[in-house]
Specification:
alpha/beta, Isopropylmalate Dehydrogenase, 10-stranded mixed β-sheet, two-stranded antiparallel sheet, globular, binds nicotinamide-adenine-dinucleotide, binds 3-isopropylmalic acid, binds manganese (II) ion, magnesium, 3-isopropylmalate dehydrogenase activity, leucine biosynthesis, manganese
Length: about 350
């Protein structure tokens, strides 16, 4: 019996998480679910975005399914109390350093992509994003500088051990796929990136079967829309990976389609859509639940070793889409619940 922590969070988080739980339930696996508050919802109820009970559940669980955090009513709070600190805290406390963000275009979604259909059709890649370091976790603050001006600062740094462990994940991911790894950095300007590049090159000696290339992040952003089919696996830092994965999502049809896995060194993981709490559509039943449903599939594969069940979820999402099921972000009019129903119906059909 595996324990799955369900952390729905804010905005559309609870709406999309509910659909993913329905899909997991329908598979009749040996799972128990335990839910806890996180983000703005937790702050409003307890005064803290990541209460001790929530962190404890996340630590006890075999895997975590996470919705999204972020609540405009919390934007004026001091940073340590803001909803986003909950996801950052979980990633750090649980040492979830390896973030896998697969981006592929499901057949039929060519028209939803911002790219020309033939360019979009070729996207099938994984962004391996480092998740425990970079400018996200450096020293930060406000000060008055020598000129008497207010100044905000966030220190960007990586140490070699951090780069080494994510580089290995990048190479191993490429080995299991097309054998191509593109390391994305800004080594022409940043010392942090120079160290990144040096360490990735050192690690590459252990993976002669993987073709390693390097690309500056500005060029990578351009290449992603010019010809996303050229990428197999990208390995990059926390900030660049955050930005490039949102961009990749729109190449693949919608930000509502991209799942993610955030893994520690032992296969424990947190699984979440790459999108946020979408306050602009929250509470309206408009959100696309596919990214979260696909995150549940990643959970089964990466943390529980249930590959066949994961394959079935992915096939059901594919079938629902080829049958024409579409939420508004994909150019359709289905509600979040109706999209979940379509995936469940496809799952039933696949059983038969
Ligand atoms: P967002 O991803 O929440 O939304 C960006 C745009 O995409 C919005 O127009 C939204 O309606 C749309 N969108 C997002 N998910 C969708 C879905 N499943 N279906 C249909 N449309 C979808 O990004 P944002 O607006 O920049 O941020 C909103 C809040 O979410 C902020 O507080 C931010 O910090 C937070 N956030 C949290 C996470 C997380 O929990 N991991 C990730 C990203 C942003
Ligand atoms: C994401 C989000 C988070 C990030 C925020 C909410 C801290 O944008 O998961 O992509 O920047 O990592
Ligand atoms: Mn993001």
């Amino acid at each position: 019996m595996a324990l799955i922590a369900i952390l729905p969070g804010d905005g559309i988080g609870p709406e999309v998480t509910a659909e993913a739980v329905r899909v997991l339930d329908a598979l009749s696996l040996d799972l128990t679910f335990e839910e806890a508050l996180v983000g703005g919802a937790a702050y409003h109820a307890t005064g803290h975005p990541l209460p001790a009970e929530t962190l404890d559940l996340a630590k006890r669980a075999d895997a975590i399914l996470f919705g999204a955090v972020g609540d405009p009513s919390c934007d004026a709070l001091e940073r340590s109390l803001r909803p986003e600190q909950a996801i950052l805290g979980l990633r750090k406390e649980l040492a979830l350093f390896a973030n896998l963000r697969p981006a592929k275009l499901f057949p039929g979604l060519e028209d939803a992509s911002a790219l020309k259909p033939e360019v979009a059709a070729a996207i099938d890649m994984v962004i391996v994003r480092e998740l425990n370091g970079d400018v996200y976790f450096g020293e930060k603050g406000f000060r008055t500088n020598a000129a008497g001006n207010r100044e905000g600062y966030d220190v960007m740094s990586y140490d070699e051990a951090e780069v080494l462990r994510i580089a290995h994940v990048g190479f191993r991911t490429a080995q299991k796929r097309g054998g191509k790894l593109c390391s994305v950095d800004k080594a022409n300007v940043l010392e942090t990136s120079q160290l990144w590049r040096d360490v990735v090159i050192e690690v590459s000696a252990l993976y002669p079967d993987v073709a390693l290339t390097h690309m500056y992040v500005d060029n990578a952003a351009m290449q992603l829309v010019r010809n996303p089919g050229q990428f197999d696996v990208i390995v990059t830092g926390n900030l660049f990976g955050d930005i490039l994965s949102d961009q990749a999502s729109m190449c693949a049809g919608s930000i509502g389609m991209l799942p993610s896995a955030s893994l520690d060194a032992n296969g424990k993981g947190l699984y979440e859509p790459i999108h946020g709490s979408a306050p602009d559509i929250a509470g309206q039943g408009k959100a696309n639940p596919c990214a979260t449903i696909l995150s549940a599939a990643m959970l089964l594969r990466h943390s529980l070793g249930l590959d066949a069940a994961a394959d079935r979820i992915e096939a059901a999402v594919g079938k629902a889409l080829t049958d024409g099921a579409r939420t508004a972000d994909l150019g359709g009019s289905l509600s979040t619940r109706a999209m979940g129903d379509a995936v469940l119906a496809a799952l039933e059909g696949l059983k038969a």
